[in-house]
Write the structure tokens for this entry.
Amino acid sequence: MSTSRDEILSALKTLLRPEQFRDYCPNGLQVEGKEEVKRVITGVTACQALIDRAIEEKADLLLVHHGYFWKGENECITGIKRKRVEALLANDISLLAYHLPLDVHPEFGNNAALGKLLGFTVTGDLGKQNNNSIGLTGELEQALSGAQLSELLAQRLGRVPLHIEGSSKPIKTVAWCTGAAQNFIELAQQAGVDAYITGEASEQTVHFARETGMHFFAAGHHATERYGVQAVAEYLATKLDFEHQFIDIDNPV
């Protein structure tokens, strides 16, 4: 049971179309390892803990949402970046990372996967980048109070969200975008939904929710972005011949 690194890269290019995005980091192969791939490990962020686990699990390839070489960061391979890259190279493990392409894929992306997990029916989007939905709008199967939706998020994501109760009215329509998309709350308000869900919150987000009467939930950057990378790898594993394991390195943010 094995496939080639290039076959996986080709399949990901066809599926995620990274060339369509103006992103904050390079999408695709970031560190080159062995050509033959038998075991793929996925995770949210290519931190040292995930790399160490990938080495323990004898991975040939590591597929993540948050990789390296972000715009604005120090480009030098020093400090913790040197240690991470050195560990990958020493163990011949390839690192593949996809940021925005993995967020917005209509079937396997983080937004789509979160909506499925929460049982939302997709009704539209918050806007588009290169014809890809940057966030989604939808409906709940039945109206919930703010406290009930907060409880649902806690149950499904394994952590209690920050809930800003803009009003006491029940929630039937929602908008969501995973990760650090708190600034899209204005797009959610323009969409006329009852609540907006994302990963993080900024100071001004609280006031915007209170003053517009919209419920706001910050459910965790990491917690909302665990599902797309798993969905992509599980799909590819049915098309190509490799083993897949998701490893969750907990992050409270």
